[in-house]
Amino acid sequence: MDCLFCKILAGEIPSTKVYEDDYVYAFKDIAPQAPFHAVIIPKKHIQSAADINSENSIYVAKIFEAVATIAKENNLGQGFRVVTNCGEDGGQTVGHLHYHMLGGRLLAWPPG
Ligand code: 5GP
Ligand code: ZN
Asked: Within 6 Å (CB) of ligand 1, which residues are found?
């Protein structure tokens, strides 16, 4: 399958690991939008948030367990944002479900 994040999972494309367990892999975004910017992905190809269902939602639960751990390990006690872009209007550019975790600065709301 021609999926960039599956290639990162397979180690075919190098990445800087932030966190890993049996369900989840997180790595530094190549174009960080904040002092801390990780991309958190399931270790299973799910296209987007629109494809989450009762069969695969364990991966989403594990991602959010990882978020809490990543926050503690990276001193994000002051706050952070977790966001997933879905589909064309949502600005999704890689078709493998992922959550951006951003922190280390005051984040504006709402996003553009
Ligand atoms: P999206 O735009 O789909 O929400 O997010 C995709 C993210 O993946 C972008 O923030 C982009 O910078 C990041 N990205 C794209 N290609 C690579 C890559 O090869 N390595 C890493 N570490 N991040 C990537
Ligand atoms: Zn994939």
From this structure: 4, 13, 15, 27-31, 39, 85, 91-94
Ligand at shortest distance from the CA of 34: 1
pLDDT tens for each residue of 41-86 = 999 999 999 999 999 999 999 999 999 999 999 999 999 999 999 9
Give the Cα separation of 84 and 92 in Å (integer).
8
CA distance readout (Å), 70 to 8, 13, 38, 59: 19, 22, 9, 16
> For this structure, is 37 an active site residue?
no
Looking from the CA of residue 92, the nearest atom of ligand 1 is 3
Q: How many CA atoms lie within 13 A of 13 on its CB side?
A: 12
Atom of ligand 1 nearest to the CA of 84: 4
* Model confidence pTM above 0.90: yes
End-to-end CA, the chain = 32
